[in-house]
Specification:
CATH superfamily: Endonuclease/exonuclease/phosphatase
Largest sheet: 6 strands, mixed
Number of helices: 8
Distance between the termini: 46 Å
CATH class: Alpha Beta
Strand content: 25-35%
């Protein structure tokens, strides 16, 4: 009889525990929407001379501070202190930045580098790829590609390009094929948000003959240079991607600079876009 009572108590205890466990609140995923602001900036001959111009550097810092990620082209210095110096200036207000930089690229002795500077509290760097041509040499400076992850595990892939203005008839058709190739590899790795941005030295109307299934963040006639006569800087992405907004940051007007003062900063304006990222968080 005592054994029967003991067994009954054990069974009742197990049922009670099971019921209590099933009634406990489980963590459920909640989708939270954030916005990433990303810019591309060709900082003309970004090297030792530019770093020796405090006003120009202050404007560059102010520009970068408006974005979460900035892709920089035309870093031209054998010394590897340009971007670290920029990071030090960006962090003077207490914010946290990091960077990743490409190898020195180009066929001649005048080589350039690409770099991404980014806010560490907003995104983390997942991976980088330096595209290398096989079976030819159509691109003067091949794209540099970086994958970033937002705090909620949303991935975005960004490629940087600076074409040779004397070879766009060769480089732009090649770039369209590189874009398709990179997109294919990204999608095979489940990265679907791919953007190629930079100084294409070609207008959207010119590039439209090759980028037939892509969109341009900057429309024809929206000038991206300080001379206000060219639409050479752009953001290219597949038609199935939706961006929230895009534009050109005319720092000459915004900072009330003369053309000469603006050209101390760069002969190009930054181009930018915003994308909505859906982050998954757990509700405790």
């Amino acid at each position: 009889m005592k054994n029967l009572i003991s067994i009954t108590i054990i069974i009742f205890s197990l049922i009670s525990c099971s019921s209590s466990t099933s009634n406990e609140k489980k963590a459920t995923p909640i989708l939270k929407t954030d916005t990433l602001s990303i810019a591309s900036f060709n900082i003309e001959i970004f090297g030792q001379s530019k770093m020796g111009k405090p006003e120009a550097m202050a404007h560059i810092v102010d520009i970068c501070n408006d974005y979460d990620i900035v892709g920089i082209q035309e870093i031209r210095s054998k010394e590897q202190n340009v971007i670290p110096t920029l990071i030090e200036l960006l962090e003077q207000d207490g914010s946290n930045w990091d960077f990743v930089i490409s190898t020195r690229l180009g066929r001649t002795s005048s080589k350039e580098q690409y770099a991404f500077v980014y806010r560490e509290n907003i995104v983390t760097l997942v991976d980088t790829v330096q595209y290398v041509e096989t079976g030819g040499d159509s691109l003067h400076r091949e794209p540099f590609v970086a994958t970033f992850r937002s705090s909620g595990n949303h991935d975005i892939v960004l490629g940087l390009i600076h074409t040779d203005p004397d070879e766009i008839d060769i480089e732009i058709p090649k770039l369209s094929r590189v874009f398709d190739e990179l997109t294919y590899h990204m999608e095979m790795s489940y990265y679907f948000d791919f953007f190629l941005m930079g100084d294409f030295n070609a207008s959207p109307d010119f590039m439209d003959d090759w980028f037939t299934t892509q969109s341009f963040g900057i429309a024809e006639g929206v000038f991206t240079n300080v001379a206000d006569n060219k639409t050479y800087d752009n953001i290219i992405y597949n038609n199935n991607i939706n961006i929230l907004n895009s534009g050109v940051f005319n720092f000459k007007t915004e900072y009330n600079l003369s053309r000469e003062e603006a050209e101390e900063v760069s002969d190009h304006y930054p181009v930018w876009f915003q994308i909505e990222v859906v982050n998954q968080i757990l509700d405790d």
